């Protein structure tokens, strides 16, 4: 970057004649810019006059926007009969004419009963027929979602046909809805992955077709998060069509003419994040549930049924001169009945179903018969009907509202749980098949790290290598996005399809690991391999056994993908206690040897877990070496404590390596106690009973491992009885491990294992309790394993996260069935009374529920019956369980704030604990004696601790393969917690500039979330001020 500095120096000389004042300005500006490369960060512009950093927390809960309805209140009313309100029935505007848009569509699942590859054969047929039929029939319209199918088909087309598709989109005959790679589930995903799913699809759409979608089409997910539409608003979309909301809530809103509504965010009183939302009128998105209230009549207007299927009563018939009058009257009658539910005279009717239009005959059947109906109806004058798109519908609706001064109803909240028209509660899928859910989160961490590390390596890659790296990242990211599909991450596909998803996730992990290794190779000219990589699609990543050798050293490179400097725990498996950890300068690093646990089996008798603490700069790697040395002073062998009585009724490996010293203790002495945290445990089970920290007095948190038995649910549904729950009967093998760096308690039972770990440090993480669970219920039938926690407060509130965006309040109704009290927990929950908050964060999505005296988290489910939601009995039953480790962190804090009525934020410690859990340091290993020390280590400043770096990923739009998109996010923060002062602000502009200089970025442009709308033109890096508001994103395109 020589040019900017020469320019500054040249101008400084010229400005000198203007006087001392101008010189001071130039000097100050230059020193701030050049200072990015120095240690000049101990005092930021947020420091107080005495140099002490100001506390990070400045977020205040704003007033919730005024709404007519909140979904939590509606759920309590329609499901539990709590506090029924006298709602206003909104009046219908009387007009002379109905305007109806019949919208041809097909719903296509990238995996469910068949794999994505198999379904691609069907979607290729649909799209080929579309391209043959629609250009010849100018009245026809078509909606397409699921860009994953469109991309696979489109890339194989000759250029002439590609241009024909582009023309259809340009003329409005073909509308691409949502633009996301897949139609995501909205209960289980984690915010950064959802952003990637949107960005990946919308960049493809813009690159190939030059358009940006204007409407969300989400007809099939089993409930809806209000966070997902918020993310879409950040790409410019402010209108949506959804379907599967609680049937009672849908009926309630329809009875009041409260659909469509403006969906508002709790934290935004402006209209910036509003989403005008239409809900499909009846139980499904097929023709039978679209034209009006009488499905028997509507069935007659699904003209594919002339040849392929039948209706229960009178069937579909070809429209002729002899029946067009009668059939038109029947259809108009349904339109008129349906219109009574709405204030406006503008209607939409869906014309399609799953995998429709796969044969050219259906295109003719639907088009030709409807055109005859349209001509007859339109000639009468009281109804105007034609084929249309979502854009047609919303444009006409907005015009109607403006002309008649109709303000759509305002609504806030999410739509969980979802209950269908049969009264079934679709809440089991929050937990179903947790092994694959964990595999997805592990892949996300790898893809994100690969994006970040390859961005640092980009200046060192040859052009060909950079293209290959980008291609591997694209494949990995698209496989990850595919798994966000509402029958993938939910675990609700056939066993063979879930296996295929697992293989795709595994292959993406291998590709991500290859990118990470290639990036280190380019940067440091040394060969390192990722230490923990799963060996198969149905296996978790395991720690490789490092065999220490007197003749050579083993080099480890530890990469911190977080934008904050951290003191981190690193753990590797070694075959000998004779090991010393040394840093890059040869100084010994304190280490601790623990027993190595093999979940499902017990203690390893011939290996050790080597644990050491290391300071990791932000977005950087630090290198250490493992040296064979006889019992070095810097490595301490932990002490094992056994209760004097062990009630073990099953086989478990209990032989420890001989180097460990052990002693017996009373069973009531099972406990952890470090400088900052103390726990007590049940003397029979070894499970947690209470926590005390240096900031918070002893707090009851009694854990029980339990199971719902004789459940009648399936992959989708919970149909358990609250009276059928019982504790696991087998008491476990319990022991405590104590050392200078951390302490742990291990509970090994026949069907589960629980490991509690407390780090003995003086930072805020020293007040956190880390919990790892392993559940194996493969020998059970129709059962659901849970961890239940009882607290000492009788008046508390439960909140769960909303795909990681913020927390949302949940109610518990003891008189309702279990399934009706379950909510999604994508990453965290907390319970809070007027003094204390207990937060639990997890690296796997779960279902959870409140209880009278606490809460429970579901860990795994096994079902040998079908729940009647389409999967059937063949290759579909929930019996393909793969046990998996799941990590939690428990944070106990004092709080003083009064929470808003419906939502809340995590504390800064909970945010950071979740980031640490999701994005563990990545360890790389090399046996090369001459492995060069990493050049990534940096003393540059951390980002502000409330800033999350979602990604720095390649831009797929444009010709520059080195161009990147950086996305920052600043979550809302609960400011009244007792430990917030431990985290202080850094200057965002200085810290981001420093990081981008390391990436050798020269020019930056601010954009919207997907990088497609440049809000500010490209500027030299040092002229860009970086900022992110609370609960908002900031995206920037980066050029070298």
Automatic annotation (TrEMBL):
Its EC number is 3.2.1.-. The chain crosses the membrane at residues 12-29. GO terms for molecular function: alpha-mannosidase activity; carbohydrate binding; metal ion binding. InterPro entries: Gal_mutarotase_sf_dom, Glyco_hydro/deAcase_b/a-brl, Glyco_hydro_38_C, Glyco_hydro_38_cen, Glyco_hydro_38_cen_sf, Glyco_hydro_38_N, Glyco_hydro_38_N_sf, Glyco_hydro_57/38_cen_sf. SMART domains: Alpha-mann_mid. Keywords: Glycosidase, Hydrolase, Membrane, Metal-binding, Transmembrane, Transmembrane helix, Zinc. It comes from the Eukaryota. Binds 1 zinc ion per subunit. One of its GO terms (cellular component) is Golgi membrane. Residues 424-505 form the Glycoside hydrolase family 38 central domain. GO terms for biological process: mannose metabolic process; N-glycan processing. Belongs to the glycosyl hydrolase 38 family. This is Alpha-mannosidase. It comes from Steinernema carpocapsae.
């Amino acid at each position: 970057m020589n040019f900017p500095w020469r320019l500054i120096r040249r101008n400084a000389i010229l400005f000198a004649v203007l006087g001392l004042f101008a010189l001071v300005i130039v000097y100050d500006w230059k020193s701030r810019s050049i200072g990015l490369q120095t240690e000049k960060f101990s005092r930021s512009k947020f420091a107080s006059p005495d140099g002490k950093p100001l506390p990070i927390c400045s977020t205040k809960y704003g007033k919730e926007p005024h709404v007519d309805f909140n979904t939590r209140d509606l759920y309590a009313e329609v499901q539990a009969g709590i506090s029924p309100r006298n709602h206003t029935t909104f009046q219908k505007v009387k007009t002379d004419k109905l305007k109806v848009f019949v919208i041809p569509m097909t719903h296509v699942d990238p995996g469910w009963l068949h794999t994505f590859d198999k379904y691609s054969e069907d979607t290729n047929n649909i799209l080929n027929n579309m391209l043959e039929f629609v250009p010849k029939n100018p009245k026809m319209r078509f909606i397409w979602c699921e860009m994953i199918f469109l991309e696979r088909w489109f890339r194989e087309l000759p250029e002439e046909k590609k241009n024909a598709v582009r023309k259809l989109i340009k003329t409005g005959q073909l509308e691409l809805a949502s633009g996301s790679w897949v139609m995501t589930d909205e209960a289980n995903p984690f915010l950064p992955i959802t952003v990637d799913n949107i960005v990946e699809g919308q960049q493809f759409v813009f690159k190939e077709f030059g358009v940006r979608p204007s409407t969300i089409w989400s007809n099939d997910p089993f409930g809806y998060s209000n966070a997902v539409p918020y993310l879409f608003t950040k790409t410019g979309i402010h209108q949506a069509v959804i379907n599967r909301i609680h049937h009672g809530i849908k009926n309630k809103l329809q009875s009041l003419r409260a659909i469509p509504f403006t969906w508002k965010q709790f934290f935004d009183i402006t209209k910036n994040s509003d989403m005008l939302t239409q809900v499909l009128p009846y139980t499904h998105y097929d023709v039978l549930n679209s034209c009006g209230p009488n499905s028997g009549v509507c069935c007659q207007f699904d003209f594919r049924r002339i040849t392929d299927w039948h209706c229960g009563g009178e069937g579909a018939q070809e429209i002729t001169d002899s029946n067009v009058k009668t059939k038109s009257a029947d259809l108009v009658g349904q339109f008129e009945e349906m219109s009574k539910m709405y204030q406006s005279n503008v209607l939409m009717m869906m014309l399609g179903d799953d995998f429709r239009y796969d044969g050219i005959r259906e295109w003719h059947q639907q088009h030709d018969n409807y055109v005859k109906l349209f001509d007859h109806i339109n000639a009468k004058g009281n109804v105007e009907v034609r084929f249309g798109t979502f854009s047609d519908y919303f444009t006409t609706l907005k015009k109607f509202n403006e002309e008649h001064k109709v303000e759509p109803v305002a609504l806030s909240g999410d739509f969980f749980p979802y209950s269908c028209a049969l009264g079934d509660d679709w809440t089991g899928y929050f937990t179903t098949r947790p092994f694959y859910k964990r595999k997805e989160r592990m892949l996300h961490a790898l893809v994100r790290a690969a994006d970040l590390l390859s961005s640092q390596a980009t200046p060192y890659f040859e052009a060909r290598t950079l293209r290959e790296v980008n291609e591997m990242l694209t494949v990995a990211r698209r496989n990850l996005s595919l798994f966000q599909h509402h029958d993938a991450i939910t675990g609700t596909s056939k066993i063979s399809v879930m296996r295929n998803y697992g293989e795709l996730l595994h292959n993406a992990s291998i590709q991500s690991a290859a990118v990470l290794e290639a990036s280190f190779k380019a940067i440091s000219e040394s060969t390192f391999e990722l230490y923990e990589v799963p060996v198969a699609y149905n296996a978790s990543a395991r720690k490789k056994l490092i065999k220490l050798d007197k003749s050579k050293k083993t080099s480890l490179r530890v990469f911190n993908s977080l934008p904050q400097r951290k003191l981190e725990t690193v753990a590797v498996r070694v075959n000998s206690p004779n090991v010393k950890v040394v840093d890059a300068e040869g100084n010994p690093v304190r280490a601790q040897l623990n027993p190595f646990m093999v979940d499902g089996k017990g203690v390893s008798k011939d290996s050790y877990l080597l644990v050491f603490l290391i300071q990791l700069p932000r977005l950087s790697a630090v290198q250490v070496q493992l040296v064979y040395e006889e019992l070095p002073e810097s490595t301490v062998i932990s002490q094992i404590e056994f209760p004097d009585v062990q009630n073990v009724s099953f086989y478990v490996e209990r032989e420890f390596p001989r180097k460990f010293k052990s002693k017996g203790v009373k069973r009531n002495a099972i406990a952890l106690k470090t400088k900052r945290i103390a726990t007590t445990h049940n003397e029979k089970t070894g499970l947690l009973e209470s926590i005390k920290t240096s900031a918070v007095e002893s707090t009851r948190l009694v854990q029980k491992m339990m199971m719902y038995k004789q459940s009648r649910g399936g992959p989708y549904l919970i149909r358990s009885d609250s009276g059928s729950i019982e504790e696991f009967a087998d008491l476990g093998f319990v022991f405590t491990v104590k050392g200078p760096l951390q302490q742990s308690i291990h509970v090994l039972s026949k069907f589960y294992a629980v490991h509690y770990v407390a780090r003995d440090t003086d930072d805020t993480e020293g007040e956190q309790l880390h919990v790892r669970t392993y559940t194996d219920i493969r020998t059970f039938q129709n059962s659901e394993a849970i961890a239940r926690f009882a607290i000492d407060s009788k008046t508390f509130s439960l909140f769960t996260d909303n795909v990681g965006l913020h927390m949302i309040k949940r109610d518990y109704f003891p008189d309702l069935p279990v399934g009706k009290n379950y909510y999604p927990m994508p990453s965290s929950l907390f319970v809070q009374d007027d003094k204390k908050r207990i937060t639990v964060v997890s690296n796997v999505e779960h279902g959870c529920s409140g209880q009278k005296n606490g809460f429970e988290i579901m860990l795994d489910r096994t079902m040998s019956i079908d729940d009647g939601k389409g999967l059937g009995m063949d290759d579909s039953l929930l019996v393909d369980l793969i046990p998996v480790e799941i990590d939690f962190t428990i944070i106990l804090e004092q709080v003083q704030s009064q929470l808003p009525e419906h939502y809340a934020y995590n504390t800064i410690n909970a945010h950071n604990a979740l980031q640490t859990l999701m994005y563990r340091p990545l360890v790389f290993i090399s046996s090369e004696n001459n492995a060069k020390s990493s050049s990534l280590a940096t003393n540059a400043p951390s980002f502000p601790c409330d800033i999350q770096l979602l990604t720095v990923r390649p831009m797929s739009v444009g010709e520059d393969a080195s161009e990147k998109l950086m996305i920052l996010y600043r979550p809302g923060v609960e400011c009244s917690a007792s430990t917030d002062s431990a985290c202080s602000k850094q200057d965002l502009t200085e810290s981001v500039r420093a990081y981008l200089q390391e990436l050798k970025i020269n020019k930056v442009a601010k954009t919207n979330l997907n990088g497609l709308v440049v809000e500010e033109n490209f500027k030299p890096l040092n002229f860009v001020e970086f900022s992110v508001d609370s609960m908002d994103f900031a995206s920037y395109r980066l050029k070298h």
